[in-house]
From TrEMBL:
Coiled coil ranges: none
EC numbers for this chain: 1.1.1.169
GO molecular function annotation: 2-dehydropantoate 2-reductase activity
Protein's name in the database: 2-dehydropantoate 2-reductase
């Protein structure tokens, strides 16, 4: 069995590194700016608890061409949400019968892939942790958290391999997992706007209050839409706004786990803004706004954040 990782960026390269620990045959499909670095330096992965591990360039395959997925029966889609359509066209062209996992933020990527790929098995996934890209093909897991994948009979033969590598949590209700992660991701634009590392941003009450207001609106629209998000951390999601609103000193005492973040960590949306790329804001805050419109609930803070990100995207 060979695995294709479609979208060799932070998540794709980090997960590839976990699979390479078991010498899995894989191809990373991505852009030249990543490929050149991987070919020169190899692929290095690390996390907060372990030393960096480097895989030399001859231990994995990298390709800029989607044709490279032709001999892969399993495809991990690790592109941004607005790139899912292109990813599905690439898969439809070269491997329409594959088992496809979406390791993306947002709640509509797996359904989009399923619609575009009627002969594939599409399994939703959610990555809870943050990965930062460091110079020299180095991808560093900078926060705690797991990868969640949807339980599916087609994934049975992969369970042993995945358990030895990136150790996903298999979940029967990925909709509630993804809507829960969406609430956490409402911080992505705030981190981009703050332009400071995640840890510093969460230690700053002004930014926490913005996030609390976004999450509060999210919880209100979820109630109206009948969505019950699973709690992914120790703190139940419905308590998040209250916890985030506490003064700095109390927050630091109560939210030790939430603040165990590498000082280098920044949200993926911050990375997009820095690189002059479009962001996923329409799939994140945009989803809260869309649900609000559907259920006649105002979402002014998410709208303001979304507008600010669209302005930053223009610069
Ligand atoms: N980074 C993080 O810490 C986390 C990210 N996530 C989610 O994971 C998903 C992936 O994010 P991330 O890894 O940060 O994204 P990145 O932008 O770092 O990586 C994606 C890479 O794939 C490339 N790409 C996109 N489409 C194709 C294609 N059709 N063929 C080949 N290459 C392609 C992109 O190129 P380019 O854009 O230059 O065209 C980019 O280099 C997102 O949904 C994100 O929200 C979830 C948790 C944490
Ligand atoms: C930071 C994190 C892990 C949660 O908001 C994330 O999902 C991202 O950077 O996209």
């Amino acid at each position: 069995m060979k695995i294709a990782i479609l979208g060799a960026g932070c998540i794709g390269c980090y997960v590839a590194g976990q699979l390479l620990k078991e010498k899995v045959s894989l191809v990373l499909i991505g852009r030249p700016y990543i490929g050149d670095s991987l070919k020169q330096h190899g692929l290095t992965v690390s996390d907060q608890d372990s030393q960096p591990l480097t895989f030399p360039p001859d231990t994995f395959e990298f390709s800029e061409a989607p044709e490279a997925m032709r001999d892969c029966s399993v495809i991990l889609v690790c592109t941004k949400s607005h790139q899912t359509e292109q990813a599905s066209q690439d898969i439809a062209h070269f491997r329409p019968d594959a088992t496809v996992f979406s390791l993306q933020n947002g709640v509509h990527n797996a359904p989009k892939l399923s619609t575009a790929l009627p002969d594939a098995t599409v399994i939703p996934g959610t990555v809870v942790f943050n990965v930062v890209s460091l110079p020299g093909g180095h991808f560093h897991k900078a926060t705690e958290g797991d990868i969640y994948l949807g339980e599916h009979p087609a994934a049975a033969s992969l369970k042993a391999l995945f358990a030895k590598t990136f150790q996903p949590v298999w979940h029967t209700d990925m909709r509630s997992v993804q809507y829960s992660k969406l609430l956490v991701n409402l911080n992505n634009p705030i981190n981009a706007i703050s332009d400071i590392p995640l840890k510093k941003e969460l230690e700053t009450r002004h930014f926490r209050k913005m996030l609390a207001a976004c999450i509060y609106e999210g919880l209100e629209v979820y109630k109206a839409a009948g969505i019950s998000p699973t709690s992914l951390g120790k703190v139940p999601v419905k308590w998040l706004p209250r916890l985030l609103n506490t003064p700095d000193i109390i927050f630091k005492l109560l939210a030790k786990q939430m603040l165990s973040i590498d000082p280098k960590a920044r949200s993926s949306m911050w990375q997009d803004i820095q690189n002059g790329k479009p962001t996923e804001v329409d799939d994140l805050n945009g989803e809260i706004i869309r649900l609000g419109q559907l259920h006649y609930i105002r979402t002014p803070v998410n709208s303001q954040v979304l507008d600010q990100i669209h302005q930053l995207e223009q610069h």
